[in-house]
Amino acid sequence: MRNRWGILAILFVVRLTIAFQFQSVAAVAPLLQQSFGVGLADIGILIGLYFTPGIVLALPGGAIGRTLGDKPTTIAALLLMTAGSLVMATTDVWGWQMAGRLTSGAGGVLLTVQLTKMGTDWFAGKEIATAMAIFVNSWPAGVAISLLVLPAIGTAYGAGAVFLAAGALTAIGILLIMFYQPPPGATASATGSGRLDRLALLAVIVAGMIWGLYNVGFAMIFSFGPSLLAERGWSIAAAGSAISVVMWLSVISVPAGGYLADRFKRPLILAIAASLTVAALLAWLTRSDAVITILVLIGLVGGHPAGPIMSLAARVLAPETRAIGMGVFYTLFYAAMMLGPAVAGRLAKTAGTAAAALDLGALAVLACPPLMWLFERIVSVRKRRAQS
């Protein structure tokens, strides 16, 4: 297949498997607490473990993809994800649950870095914000599907069936990725120097921090939102369905944000305004009974910064530095996403309520606008030095 939008569709569906698998723990957290006798802090650690391998694998993951090639790397990653789900589905020992989660996470890391690089290869310089918005939209789509499907599976058949469903979906991803083809000239362009200059490296680091913090804030909604609603007397299925509203509306707001960024050439203003709004809504959610109204507003606004943020790294990465640059970008992202749920779970345990986790999410999103300003400053300095 050589049509870039068709390629994007393949990447979208394959990346969706990561979100579906990641959410498999949070979607049935109350069931896991009952089955294994663990608390919210333990659930937070298990959620965060999915991203732990990213701290050590994201950076070499870019180099691995550069050495082995796009398709072999993605297939290996999907095999790891499938194996991890099978381990979690077949054990009743908490330690093996953690081991399976780490294995799945290792595959998810490699797959995320490689798919992002593959998407950027096809769209660098042409509708990049729109393409990246559609690409990252696979995450809320996968989470939304999991919130609707997995609680019902877990209630009917147990947590093991939930993890089997996640493994089956990643196995389907292996079949889909067989249809991927690199863009013309991609192989030749990737053979140049892979070294990042100092300012480009700094810009990618800041971009990774922005993406990590924003996702920490957003992850608090679907990681601890169901537990927050359960505290208020909602059933597991009802809580999952309510939280899924955010994800389903994000399916609309994420590409809309990318389109608006490309159309009006004001991605920074759009991302800052949306971030401030989401931070306020997260803080409001823990202090109000207007749950559905707030969740709808978060869904309509929360997706807008995704495309602009994901396109930041592409602004300073050449084709030959793209693999290593995306590795750096995702190292920061995974560090934030590993620590965020674990810290949030600990705060929730100390406070005695999941509301503390969502308040932490509001603070994480609030930190993004200053970092966006810093990124623009670094890019401006880099341009001036290149012209002098």
Automatic annotation (TrEMBL):
Protein's cellular compartments: Cell membrane
Pfam families documented for this protein: MFS_1
InterPro entries per the UniProt record, alphabetical: MFS, MFS_dom, MFS_Efflux_Transporters, MFS_trans_sf
Protein's UniProt keywords contain Transmembrane: yes
GO CC annotations on file: plasma membrane
Domain Major facilitator superfamily (MFS) profile: from-to ranges: 7-379
Keyword Membrane: yes
UniProt keyword list: Cell membrane, Membrane, Transmembrane, Transmembrane helix
UniProt name for this protein: Arabinose ABC transporter permease
Membrane topology: Multi-pass membrane protein
Domain of life: Bacteria
Cited PROSITE patterns: MFS
Gene3D superfamilies: MFS general substrate transporter like domains
MF annotations from Gene Ontology: transmembrane transporter activity
Species whose genome carries this gene: Bradyrhizobium betae
Transmembrane segments annotated in the record for this chain: 36-60, 72-90, 128-150, 156-179, 199-224, 236-261, 268-285, 291-316, 328-348, 354-375
